[in-house]
Amino acid sequence: KVKATPAARRLARERGIDLSLLSGTGPDGLVRTEDVEAFVPVEAPVEGELVPLKGVRKIIAERMETSWRTAPHISFTVTIDMTEAEVHRAAWNAERAEGEARLSLTGVLIKAVAELLPRHRYLNASLRGEEVLLHEAVNVGMAVAREEGLIVPVLKGADRLTLGEVASQCSNLAERARQGKLTPDDVAGGTFTVSNLGMFGVEQFNPIINPPESAILAVGTVATEPVVVEEEIAIRQRMRITLAVDHRVADGGLAGQFLADLKSTLEEPGPFFQ
What we know:
This protein is an alpha/beta fold and about 270 residues long. The chain is built from eight helices and eight strands; from the N terminus they run αααβααββββαβββαα. It has a six-stranded mixed sheet with strand order 1-8-7-6-4-5. A two-stranded antiparallel sheet has the order 2-3. Helix 5 packs across helix 6. The chain is elongated.
């Protein structure tokens, strides 16, 4: 049995240290509290490549850590039937001339969100000290994954853009983001963000708010599922979306109403595509 003072034993238990690994400096090798405090565990060698956290990834890490630490996130998930919306999107794309940008699902979400945000102003807002800034502009960010790290180019005045303009800007910004050709103005001024990981097969995820915004929408994949429609089994295309909100700015009632309006817009998309 290792000789140790009661205080040293208690401290070793708290820190998860095996007393047999220590050399006591007290009489007859007695382990004292200072011996426990001075103990530095030897780390086992780890094989692999150490990559420095720098540049864009470091900035992202710092911003996300700050957002997660300072903004109390609350998340809400709904499932949307995208069957009719996908039919309309395919028809819309089929009518485009050669060389015109095609409308992606991300573009549909950005346009739908942009049209709703003027009626849900606390989701298009920023906390400034003890005041909430309700933005007049609707500038929707589009999260783009790159090897160098996530970047969020912004569609400025997205509520005033046509579907064709949204399709064109989404295509242009995504391509320049992957080529590293975005300008500082391209990524500035966002008031709301849409992050779509559906193309990777991700069904659902909880996003971190992009500061200083107050909300972000996470989009999952569109999956073919059997569902009950008017008491019969039908095959439908369904998508899960998750809205994360800064609870200091908005609450569950506001988030729920926004999601209900977005669900209605996408499930009855006729007017949206006109």
